[in-house]
Design a protein that fits this description.
By secondary structure, the chain is α+β, with helices and mostly antiparallel strands. The chain is built from 15 helices and 17 strands. The longest helix has 19 residues.
Length: 462
């Protein structure tokens, strides 16, 4: 590269950094703290329910819930502008094998369309198996649309995607690294980190799991094996996904269609992507699909839920590099007597992020937050359960990259029964984790302190 080109590239990079650095998170002080009404807005497949009908439905579904649950739902709606969607069935899926089994079964049963959106789509045994299934469904006449992130798949050969394209699958590389290949607004720093598959417009999968052999095996979750007695090379990543059926699937389908169109990739092939969806369960779901320069709905919903916590805040976070407002909210909750526990990585696929996150351990531990590090398995889950009633599962990490730069997708489920299942999963992860005490943390090696200091300098970008 000659000197003039080098100067041009450095100037462009500096401009990118300057522009991106202007992006900030919402001021926590502007979040609502007083419910503006008695009940949250409830949507169904037929539209928004009248107030009286919504109140009756909430009374039936949340008969054993405290009034605080309704207040939290209202505050979250005020903060995000997104209503609850009633009538859904939500199934928790843990780790890769169970999730891939359910996703492939749903894909095999597809009769009309499969829409897949993923950050990573590897050419490995899992990726090849998934690709073969998608190509077979296309041969059967099913419409298949695949959107994959260009940075997340930077190590995947173009020929792998070319084969699917030649088989008739509509392939979209999201935000190409090379701006010359971009059709819409291009920004190399804005990545599509969502994980979503919608089949026939009636069943959806979302959460933290990518299409990769990192998920070929189970983690130690719900295993009788102890961490010291397992072959670490055969342990899969620890992650959480959900399968959703019911009216909320339409909102998830819309997030896929909207993201596809925003890339100016043309319209999707004609099809019935939004069939009439009858109620199939009793779960209230809020779908939060965020984007750069959006309204930070996932960030706001998490802060509101932490601020309103009465008993417990239990968070499992793969890449945990919180901003000061999240730290302050967690410490404030602990100081008012809330049981605040975090399950964070003990081992990670991204050492820089892990060390950047550990730079925040001291103020959290000093504030009464308890921190546990998952052993052996790489932690990739992004979940939280608060007061055993408010739960979130999705793709967003607790860091600035997710909240400011990425396209992310989380679902919030407000339901005591589902919350108890989430709480049981959190307790299971604690079994395979080791607590970090403040005394032990203060005696850590100086080499680790240096790594944390250096990593924190890059926290805005990682």
């Amino acid at each position: 590269m000659n000197k003039n080109r080098l100067h041009t590239w450095l100037a462009a990079l500096l401009l990118l950094c300057t522009v991106a650095a202007c992006r900030t998170l919402p001021d926590a002080g502007t979040l609502p703290d007083t419910p503006a009404k008695a009940n949250p807005t409830v949507a169904t497949a037929r539209g928004t329910l009248p107030k009286a009908q919504a109140a009756q439905l909430l009374a039936r579904r949340w008969a054993n819930a405290t009034p605080d649950l309704k207040g939290l739902a209202v505050l979250e709606e005020q903060a995000t502008g997104i209503p609850l969607i009633a009538g859904n069935r939500v199934q928790l899926l843990f780790d890769g094998p169970a999730t891939m089994r359910e996703m492939m079964a749903a894909a095999r049963a597809a009769t009309h369309s499969i829409n897949l959106e993923t950050y990573i789509f590897d050419q490995d045994p899992i990726g090849l198996q998934f690709a073969e299934l998608l190509m077979e469904k296309r041969r059967q006449g099913v419409i298949v649309n695949v959107m994959y992130d260009s940075v997340g798949t930077i190590g995947t050969p173009d020929a792998f995607f070319g084969r699917m394209r030649e088989a008739g699958i509509n392939m979209l590389a999201f935000n190409p690294v090379n701006p010359a290949k971009a059709k819409g607004n291009w920004s190399v720093n804005n990545r599509d980190h969502r994980k979503l598959m919608v089949v026939d417009g009636s069943v959806a999968f979302t959460g933290g799991i990518n299409i990769s052999s990192d998920y070929a095996n189970s983690s130690l979750f719900r295993s009788r094996s102890k961490p010291d007695n397992v072959d670490k090379d055969k342990v899969g990543w620890r992650d959480t996904h959900v399968k959703i059926e019911g009216p909320a699937v339409a909102a998830l389908q819309w997030s896929f269609v909207n993201n596809w169109v925003r890339q100016e990739a043309g319209e999707l092939p004609p099809g019935d992507y939004f069939p009439r969806l009858a109620p199939v369960g009793d779960k209230f779901v809020r779908v939060l699909a965020t984007e750069p320069d959006g309204h930070s709905e996932i960030y706001k919903s998490l802060l509101v839920a932490i601020n309103e916590a009465k008993k417990s805040v239990h968070i499992t976070s793969a890449y945990f590099v919180p901003d000061p407002q999240i730290v302050d909210a967690l410490v404030a909750a602990a100081k008012r007597g809330v049981d605040v526990k975090l399950v964070l990585p003990g081992v990670s696929d991204h050492g820089l992020v892990m060390h950047a996150g550990r730079a925040f351990y001291e103020p959290l531990l000093a504030g009464g937050v308890r921190i546990f590090q998952l052993q052996v398995a790489v932690l990739h889950a992004k979940t939280a359960v608060i007061d055993e009633a408010w739960s979130t599962i999705g793709s967003a990490n607790i860091d600035r990259r997710s909240f400011i730069h990425n396209y992310e997708l989380n679902v919030v489920v407000i339901d005591p029964a589902f919350g108890r299942d989430m709480e049981a999963a959190f307790i299971e992860d604690l079994r395979d984790s080791k607590e970090v005490t403040r005394e032990a943390w203060r005696s850590r090696p100086w080499s680790d302190r240096v790594k944390e200091w250096m990593a924190r300098l890059t926290e805005y970008w990682i």
